[in-house]
Amino acid sequence: MSLSKHSNPVWDDYCADPFVLKHDDLYYCYGTSGSHEQPGLNGRKFILLRSKDLVNWEQIGGALIPAKGNENGAHWAPEVAYANGKFWMYYSASQSGDDGDQHLRVAFASTPEGPFEDLGEMLPDEGFCIDPSPFQDPQSGKWYLYFCKDYFDGRVGSGTAVVELADDMQTTVGDLIPLVRADSDWQIYERNRFHMGQQWEAWHQ
Questions:
Q1: What is the pLDDT of residues 123-164, one digit of tens each?
Q2: CATH of the domain at 28
Q3: How far is the C-alpha of 202 from the C-alpha of 125, rounded, in Å?
Q4: Is the pTM of this model over 0.90?
């Protein structure tokens, strides 16, 4: 078997936090967009690419219709799962345009090309949460959602948690389980540092 040659990048426009889903011999890449004004999104969130070989990609539009009233909020890191005959998108979005107000949300579509329709927040009582990643246990068939969240009890900082998804793929079952939390500083930031166009308070990771 010979390998075809290609050069990087395979996509040179903005596509942060890329996630690739294979369905019916095609690959779909969902990524964080640069802004709601990024060309080709048609007023939607998340750039959506399609490929037959993971090398040659074409943009086929934007993937998500944002929730009403949240059109200008920051939308980050989408991932998609196929279950119950539908496609489920998990992502985080700010409620007020403030990046520090990210919450996990879920949307659905009948095809991988969308458009995905927002179904609301998943964990409204939790604080800052980002980077959701759905996973199905191959033995039990149960779905779980892994994500990053901020902790404010004990040592303040970011960590990783998981929660079981209900059969409807929209709601959760049982309590949130912390997986990884910092017990010492592995990265220390300057207090009130200026980064990415704004000032940030002290934070531990």
A1: 988 888 999 999 999 999 999 999 999 887 777 778 999 999
A2: 2.115.10.20
A3: 24
A4: no
